[in-house]
Specification:
The chain is an all-alpha fold. The protein contains four helices and no strands. The radius of gyration is 15 Å and the shape is flat. Belongs to the drug/metabolite transporter (DMT) superfamily. Small multidrug resistance (SMR) (TC 2.A.7.1) family. It comes from Hymenobacter caeli. This is Small multidrug resistance pump.
Length: 109
């Protein structure tokens, strides 16, 4: 169940971040509300995941998966392009999360 809460936290944070971009610096009410609610739910769900997942591991997964999802949304929805060094950096973040998940004895499977 902790990974379900972590997944919900990630999705909520990605929704909040996407809405933050669409809020135009909080000048649009709808996206601004989605931003605040999304981040609130993200921290709420994240707190439940921390009952069973070490905070460093949970935060690394949240950050890594969130970065990839926000990057994909930015690419397809906002037409934002990244150069090769940025993509390589994101790849290294994903690799780090995978190493933790696959090889660390700290991570509960």
């Amino acid at each position: 169940m902790p990974y379900v809460f972590l997944f919900l936290a990630i999705i909520s944070e990605v929704m909040g971040t996407t809405a933050l971009t669409a809020s135009n610096q909080f000048t649009k009410l709808g996206p601004s509300i989605v931003t605040v609610v999304g981040y609130g739910l993200a921290f709420y769900f994240f707190s439940f995941s921390l009952k069973a997942i070490p905070v460093g591991v949970a935060y690394a997964i949240w950050g890594g998966v969130g970065i990839v999802l926000v990057t994909l949304i930015g690419f397809f929805y906002f037409k934002q392009r990244l150069d090769w060094p940025a993509l390589a950096g994101i790849g290294l973040i994903v690799a780090g999360v995978l190493v933790m998940q696959l090889f660390s004895k700290t991570v509960s499977h």
